[in-house]
Amino acid sequence: MKKLMAVSCLLIVPAFGLLAQGPPPRGAGFGPMGGRFMGMMGGPQPLVTGAPYSAVEIVQQQETLADGNSIVHKRQSNVYRDSQGRVRTEETITPSASSGKQPYTMATILDFVGGHRYVLDSSTMTAYESALHAPPTPGQGANGMARRGGIQSDAARPDRPNVVRTTLSPQSVNGVLASGTQHVETIPAGAIGNARPIQTTRVTWISNDLKVPVQIKSTDPRFGATDMELTNIVQGEPNASLFTVPAGYTIKTGGPGGMRGLHGLRGGAQTQ
Fold first, then answer.
1. Which residues pair with 151 in a beta bridge?
2. How far from chain centre, in Å, is Cα 51?
3. Contact 148, 212 (CB under 8 A)
4. Ramachandran class of 9: left when φ > 0, alpha when ψ lies in -120 to 50, beta otherwise
5. Residue 8: inside a domain, yes or no?
6. Residue 3 included in any domain
7. Which of 15, 38, 99, 118 could form an S-S bond across to 109 if both were Cys, CB 3.0 to 4.6 Å?
């Protein structure tokens, strides 16, 4: 089974454990969540200020095999954003029982105010620091394309043949008012060696207030179904300590193992 390739979001994944398996749905366009859901949130992270929140992000990918068996990958992370636009994502990593290691926390802080990214490893009490480029302005991403929460918005996606885009009526999703779009893409027979047409579907709901996706559902008969849910949403200011390096941590430049260019979830602003 092919490894899931993250689009701009997690080229290196020390902060969030193992990659979910299986290639991304064609045209998904979200990290994730084109690459994966999440943290899914690949690509430049817009600086959204004045809309603080905390939430739990759950990503589940299910692949059904030819014999009827299925493989399910599920991961959960906590997400925070303060009024200044700083973002924190954190996940508890549980090593295999045979490793003898205790569970630990990996977190990424995107401090757009100070211009730094920090990857925090609680198992070694180490904070890996790298520089952040200035984030795009709200509604703008790479090449001037509008993005929402690191995901290129449907309104900005260039028209592609064989894609039907439907704007859905606003509704409450996971406790917040959200605007939705549905993309149905048909891959013609023979385009990728397929004997018959292949149809993929992606439904994205973006919070009107928070400007981040609160639900993304993608189905592709080649790879299965992927679902991202932003749950337990609290619209309020998180504790300021979440966006600073805790006392007792050793700060090192670059990423774990001397690697550079780490891309954090929900805001893969690029390192210099």
1. 148
2. 18
3. yes
4. alpha
5. no
6. no
7. 118
- 235-264 as b/e, with b when 16 or more CB fall inside 10 Å? eeebeeebbebeeebeebeebbeeeeebbb
CB under 8 A, 24+ apart: contacts of 240-243: 240/82, 242/80, 242/82, 242/88, 242/109, 243/80, 243/82, 243/86, 243/88, 243/109, 243/111
* Euclidean distance between CA atoms 159 and 170, whole angstroms: 23
- Total of domains in the chain: 1
Does residue 264 sit within a domain? no
Hey, what are 167's tokens? 């704007």
Cα–Cα distance measured from residue 158 to residue 160, given in angstroms and rounded to the nearest whole number:
6
Residue 145 lies in a domain: yes
CATH number for position 34? 2.50.20.10
CA–CA distance from 169 to each of 28, 60, 137, 172, 197 (Å)? 21, 25, 27, 10, 29
- Alpha-carbon distance of 69 to 134, in angstroms, equals 46
pTM for this entry:
0.72
Q: Which domain holds residue 39?
A: 14-258
pLDDT tens, the chain, 272 aa long: 433 333 333 332 333 333 233 333 333 333 333 233 333 444 455 689 999 999 999 999 999 888 989 999 999 999 999 999 999 999 999 888 888 889 999 999 999 888 999 999 999 999 999 998 756 655 554 433 333 333 344 444 555 778 999 999 999 999 999 999 999 999 999 999 999 999 999 999 999 999 999 999 999 999 999 999 999 999 999 999 999 999 999 999 976 643 333 333 343 333 33
